[in-house]
């Protein structure tokens, strides 16, 4: 895994053999996965010795054994070692990785890649976050940012705008900075994009039942007229709302479904979910008169 805890390569070894006996194979897989871009690898004292170092050097990787320079009493945090332990903690959140349930090493390896793929996707969203608008002035966006230092360990960065702020429509750059105990500071940025994906709401009249006035049916005027509201634009103008049967149209002797649509300023179109249905009952006298004339 890299210094951010991202899984690069995985190699399972038998429990009755030393892990350092497989340094060469693991280093080869790491270089294949990264395009031979890894130059240094931090390892614990279990990888001390000439053979692990030589096998890593054969893959153009320098092993750096992380250890204390002098004896310590009690628990002392080892530089870089906590990154590995943190990954173990992440993996233990997945039920199938808590215990060695699997019979085949290939299954264990595959489950690790699935678990860390889930973690990568979750963490990747922190660097470029997209939210849908929830009210007229934008959306409230929460995010998490972290920083790590080889000496100071985990550091809480300062970000502006802070998490939980309301972001307006469009892209906003969030700037984060962190400083370690020695006063060294660094900066990073990511974008939060708020998009209008909320369709307008079409308001249509209730179903209309009207008696026929002629053999052709009846002329029907919508009262009230169909309207629409949008979370960003508010009440939409009449030219933004249209129906496939306009008000004042003549409806025949049948049930006719009228569909109305509305489009907001961001070209999001919605059709009314509650259809207005118009039914004209036949006028017996008018119909008999018409038939008699025929």
Number of strands: 21
Low-confidence stretches: 273-294
Structural class: alpha+beta
Question: How many strands, which pairing sense, and closed or not: the largest β-sheet?
Answer: 4 strands, mixed
Radius of gyration: 34 Å
The total count of helices amounts to: 6
Secondary-structure element order, as H and E? HEHEHHHEEEEEEEEEEEEEEEEEEEH
Strand numbers in spatial order across the main sheet: 3-10-9-7
Report, as a whole number of angstroms, the end-to-end distance.
Answer: 89 Å
Basic shape: elongated
**Into which percentage range does the β-strand content fall?**
25-35%
Percent helix among the residues? 10-25%
Query: What is the total number of structural domains?
Result: 3
Mean pLDDT: 79
Question: What are the salient characteristics of this protein?
Answer:
22% helix; 3-stranded antiparallel beta sheet; 294 residues; 30% strand; Immunoglobulin-like; 4-stranded mixed beta sheet; 6 helices; single chain
Topology:
Elements: H1 23-34, E1 40-43, H2 50-57, E2 62-65, H3 81-91, H4 95-98, H5 105-124, E3 128-132, E4 139-141, E5 147-149, E6 153-155, E7 158-160, E8 165-167, E9 170-179, E10 185-195, E11 201-203, E12 208-211, E13 218-220, E14 227-230, E15 234-235, E16 241-243, E17 249-251, E18 255-258, E19 260-263, E20 269-271, E21 276-281, H6 284-293
Parallel strand pairs: 1-2, 3-10, 12-21
Antiparallel strand pairs: 4-8, 5-6, 7-9, 9-10, 11-14, 13-17, 14-15, 16-19, 18-21, 19-20
Helix pairs in contact: 1-2
Give a structural overview.
- The chain is α+β, with helices and mostly antiparallel strands and 294 residues long.
- It folds into three domains: 19-124, no CATH class; 128-195, Immunoglobulin-like (Sandwich), CATH 2.60.40; 201-293, Immunoglobulins (Immunoglobulin-like, Sandwich), CATH 2.60.40.
- Helix content is 22%, strand content 30%.
- The protein has helices at residues 23-34, 50-57, 81-91, 95-98, 105-124, 284-293; strands spanning 40-43, 62-65, 128-132, 139-141, 147-149, 153-155, 158-160, 165-167, 170-179, 185-195, 201-203, 208-211, 218-220, 227-230, 234-235, 241-243, 249-251, 255-258, 260-263, 269-271, 276-281.
- Strands 3-10-9-7 form a four-stranded mixed sheet, with no helix packed on it.
- A hairpin with a 5-residue loop joins strand 19 and strand 20.
- Helix 1 runs parallel beside helix 2.
- The longest helix is centred in the middle third of the chain and has 20 residues, at 105-124.
- The radius of gyration is 34 Å and the shape is elongated.
- Residues 273-294 have low confidence and may be disordered.
């Amino acid at each position: 895994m890299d210094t951010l805890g991202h899984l690069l390569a995985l190699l399972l070894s038998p429990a009755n053999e030393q892990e350092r006996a497989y340094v060469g194979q693991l280093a080869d897989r790491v270089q294949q996965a990264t395009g031979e871009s890894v130059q240094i690898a931090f390892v614990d004292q279990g990888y001390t010795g000439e053979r692990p170092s030589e096998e890593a050097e054969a893959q153009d990787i320098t092993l750096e054994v992380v250890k204390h320079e002098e004896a310590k009493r009690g628990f002392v945090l080892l530089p870089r070692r906590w990154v590995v332990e943190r990954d173990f903690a992440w993996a233990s959140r997945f039920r199938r990785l808590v215990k060695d349930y699997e019979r085949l090493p290939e299954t264990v390896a595959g489950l690790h890649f699935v678990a860390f793929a889930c973690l990568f996707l979750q963490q990747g969203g922190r660097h470029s976050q997209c939210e849908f608008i929830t009210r007229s002035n934008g959306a409230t966006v929460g995010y998490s940012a972290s920083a790590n230092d080889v000496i100071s360990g985990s550091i809480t960065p300062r970000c502006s705008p802070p998490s939980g702020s309301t972001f307006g429509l469009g892209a906003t750059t969030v700037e984060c900075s962190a400083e370690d105990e020695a006063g060294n500071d660094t900066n990073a940025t990511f974008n939060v994009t708020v998009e209008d994906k909320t369709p307008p709401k079409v308001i249509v009249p209730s179903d209309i039942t009207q008696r026929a006035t002629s053999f052709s049916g009846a002329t029907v005027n919508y009262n009230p007229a169909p309207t629409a509201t949008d979370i960003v634009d508010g009440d939409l103008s009449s030219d933004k709302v249209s129906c496939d049967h306009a008000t004042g149209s003549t409806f025949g002797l049948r049930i006719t479904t009228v569909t109305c649509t509305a489009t907001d300023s961001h070209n999001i179109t919605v059709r009314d979910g509650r259809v207005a249905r118009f039914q004209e009952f036949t006028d017996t006298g008018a119909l008999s008169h018409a038939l008699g004339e025929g």
